[in-house]
Write a structure and sequence with these properties.
mainly alpha
């Protein structure tokens, strides 16, 4: 009985430490292991793990502050660039053959704004709120992303085959900035990791259930 008690008590401590370590995530590094009982190898290990969690918490907090500050500073020049591009288009002072280039620049500017919004969301370590979820047209999203990558696609002489539903025919319920980043990353990888004169196939399909 004495031997069982002596081995059972440390085992419970180790089980508790393991459960807490598995439950802690980057969104909650403030939790600590409660250290009880006499000073032994297990309590010393618990103290070292708590110190590690404290350092990780400080590192994540510093990273979040950096991303938040950088994203905030980027908003002003991006907003200025968007205004400078929209003004001549609205006034009709841009020659017709140059208008597609300005519209492409505006789409790239919008994508940067959405990327900054996504970075701020990640920096604040918040879950996506219900109000941030909308219906996104995947056809429009893919078409705009393909247009943004048109120069890279032409430079590598790639053939893009798109099997997409008509605009407005289908939608994806999700967080638009995150979807923009995901689609852009997928298509960028398809371009960069392709071979010259290669092919890219994109398809949107409704899956019931």
């Amino acid at each position: 009985i004495v031997a069982w008690y002596l081995t059972r008590s440390p085992a419970r401590k180790i089980t508790g430490i393991s459960a807490l370590a598995a439950d802690i995530s980057a969104h909650d590094l403030s939790r600590r292991i409660e250290v009880h009982g006499p000073h032994d190898e297990i309590t010393e290990l618990s103290g070292q793990i708590n110190t590690m969690f404290a350092r990780l918490e400080a590192a994540f907090a510093g990273q979040e502050r950096f991303v938040a500050n950088a994203s905030h500073e980027l908003r002003t020049p991006i907003t200025t660039a968007r205004t400078a591009l929209e003004a001549p288009l609205t006034q009709g002072s841009v020659p017709e053959h140059l208008q597609p280039y300005l519209r492409r620049a505006l789409r790239a500017n919008q994508r940067m704004e959405e990327l900054i919004a996504a970075l701020l969301m990640l920096a604040r370590s918040k879950h996506i709120a219900p109000d941030d979820v909308t219906d996104v047209d995947p056809t429009s999203l893919i078409t705009h992303t393909t247009d943004d990558l048109a120069e890279q696609i032409q430079a590598r002489r790639l053939t893009v085959t798109a099997d997409l539903p008509p605009l407005g025919a289908t939608s994806v319920h999700g967080h638009q900035p995150s979807l923009v980043i995901a689609v852009h990353n997928l298509l960028t990888n398809a371009v960069q990791h392709n071979r010259d004169n290669g092919q890219i196939s994109v398809r949107v399909e409704n899956i019931d259930g």
